[in-house]
Amino acid sequence: MIRLTDAPLDSQTGIAQVQSTQAGAVVLFLGTTREFTRGRQTLTLIYDGYREMAERELQRLETTASERWSLTACLIEHRLGEVPLGEASVLVAVSSPHRKDAFEAAQWIMDTLKQDVPIWKQEHWADGQVEWVHPGLPPAE
Amino acid sequence: MIRLTDAPLDSQTGIAQVQSTQAGAVVLFLGTTREFTRGRQTLTLIYDGYREMAERELQRLETTASERWSLTACLIEHRLGEVPLGEASVLVAVSSPHRKDAFEAAQWIMDTLKQDVPIWKQEHWADGQVEWVHPGLPPAE
Amino acid sequence: MIVHVRLFAAARELAGREVVEILVEEALTVGDLRALLATQVPALAPLLPHVRLAVNSSYASDATQVAAGDEVACIPPVSGG
Amino acid sequence: MIVHVRLFAAARELAGREVVEILVEEALTVGDLRALLATQVPALAPLLPHVRLAVNSSYASDATQVAAGDEVACIPPVSGG
Predict the structure, then answer these.
(1) What is the CA radius of gyration of chain C?
(2) pTM for this model (two decimals)
(3) Is residue B140 part of a domain?
(4) Ordered domains of chain C (ranges, CATH)
(5) Of D50, D73, D81, which has the smallest distance from its Cβ to B31's Cβ?
(6) What local confidence, expressed as pLDDT, does residue A139 receive?
(7) What is d(CA A130, CA A69) in angstroms, rounded to the nearest whole number?
(8) Which residues of chain A are within 8 Å of residue B32 when distances are taken between CB atoms?
(9) Count of domains in chain A?
(10) Which CATH number covers residue A101?
(11) For position B139, what pLDDT does the model report?
């Protein structure tokens, strides 16, 4: 299951979707908006995405992880638009018979999502600067 | 924060206790009662513990993990008594600025909990057998 | 034919628009298109070596052929999650 | 002195009680106690090589001294989580 949404992510519903009598382990990951990055203060984050492709890529992650780790269930959700401080931009919930698979799958999903899924965050800094985040790019002039 | 309880574990409350504007990552782990183990059916599980020592050991895990991975917050809860199919016997919720630390800490806590915390589960099998689980022990006569 | 290239994030900001239309005389590769984009939208030139291009919502190599009707997108390094 | 040893899980089942009381003439080590337990509660003998003993809620080595008033516990391999 995958979902892009402009609404807050609901971890309780996410967990309920993967918890199962066939699973012995549930791992939930939330990526949340952090206030300070190397001492610099964030006011808020805005996420934008190439929606059609982001959904395809998320679907690909779900399918690959589900097969590779024999998951019982797998849910990946990403919020777009503004994600205020402390709230979640991404939710991954997986379940599996044994815990090692659930941990590995959730980590792989997050690592791969951060490389491949066409979603971008725009930092709104407390010092007034606004910038799109593009890891690995030389800083803008 | 650590807690032994005879009541169901509440993941929503657990997540709320660790989510923070100082954290960019929340990892929640639930260990849940699985119905089938190598084809053998479980009816239910009963957990017993040496409570005073289990609390000390859980506290030690929380302190060690919080320091080693610079966690923002760390919660470990274990349920005792009957834990029906699909419900959670253990809940670990951690938050940290970056996700790698949260994942590693949650896994280390679970690995260490399963080695050191004096809690035992009693399997109630569908075939009528009842047995305490002691990993590594030669099977009872 | 006209190839539409969708832009996102810093690419959209640099170009000042969401879509770039490029008129081409014949079928071309993603690599050709990358070179054309740099010429026709100079503001994008510094970014282009760092972007991946997608054709019909899949990442494409520079050897991929672009046909009429394809949707091309310019994907700067992503930062979701 | 009397040393109280708390039993859990299979140890409790094998011994048929929650606490074993062992009368000792003088201070002893955890290793001494392990040997005494096997003699005085033969039902526990097969399990004892596989258990850890705790003194006052901390795992103890066989060299640890047991003093009057200490709480000793017999911890078979754990299976929480």
Answers:
(1) 12
(2) 0.96
(3) no
(4) 2-75 (3.10.20.30)
(5) D81
(6) 66
(7) 39
(8) 19-21, 23-26, 95
(9) 1
(10) 3.90.1170.40
(11) 66
